[in-house]
Structures are given as C-alpha cells and as structure tokens.
Amino acid sequence: MNALQNPLVILTFLPVIGIILILLQKEENRTTNRWIALLTSLAVFAVSIWVLTLYNPADPNAQLEIDIPWFTINGIPVRFHLGLDGINILLVLLTAFVTPLAILTTWKFISQNFRSFMVVFLLLEMALMGVFLSFDMVLFYVF
Fold first, then answer.
1. Considering its fold, how many domains does the chain have in total?
2. Per-residue pLDDT at 15
3. What is the tens place of the pLDDT at every residue in 37-67?
4. Which domain holds residue 131?
5. Which of 15, 99, 110, 111 has the fewest CB atoms lying closer than 10 Å?
6. Residues 23, 121, 101, CA angle at the centre, nearest 5°?
7. How far is Cα 79 from Cα 102, in angstroms, rounded to an integer?
8. Distance CA 5, CA 50 (A)
9. How far apart (Å, rounded) are the C-alpha atoms in residues 104 and 34?
C-alpha cells in the first residue's frame, strides 16, 4: 500500500480537497461553499468510520501506520509517521463527528467572510486529525 492509499493519510488530508474547491468558488456563492464544506466534513466522517472498521481493539500496538523518512535536522531524522492507537481513535472519531455539526450550526449565522471561515474551519479539521494521528514530535508541531 503506498502512502496515498493509507486511510490515515486520506483522513488527514481530505479537507484540503474541500479547501481547494471552496477557494475556486466566489465569495458570493455562499450556498455552494456551505455544501462543499459540509460534504467534505461528511466525507471525512465516512473515512473515520472506515478507519474504525479497520481498527483492531485487541491489538495494543499502533495500527494502520505509515512511516516515511522526511528530512534530517542536525543528524536527527524527522519522519512522516502517522498511526492509530486506542486513545487517538476516539479523538479522531469525535473530531470527525463534531465538525459537520459545527458546520451545520453556522449554516445561517455566519454572513460575512463565509468562504474564509469555511476554509479555516476545514484547515482546523485537517490540523486536528494530523495532531491526533502523528507519531513524530516534529510532525506533531507542524500540524
């Protein structure tokens, strides 16, 4: 399985697709921007359910890991290392569940800079997924 097929990479970076689609829209297309943000967050939730089905609670080790060398700082290797364990699966599911609810909550109440708001909201979802799934300290701080 290559890096782009790993469910954790898909889960982490799927909001970027929504961000790009929203940025391609005009600010005046509020309804379109709302639907793009909502459908993107629902897709992230669907992927998180898929990740839950792949998770084995009987295995105490990290699961669905991806560990790729990234770069070196003063001889210390920094890796793109994502993984799933018993604690972060709950945080990932909670984030993926709450994000569509939060987008629905702001559906009619945010009237100014809505496109920017949704872009930052999806960026926040991506950052949270990255923080919860990262197994490398530098990658944790990048997210």
1. 1
2. 97
3. 999 999 999 999 999 999 999 988 999 999 9
4. 3-142
5. 111
6. 120
7. 32
8. 13
9. 9
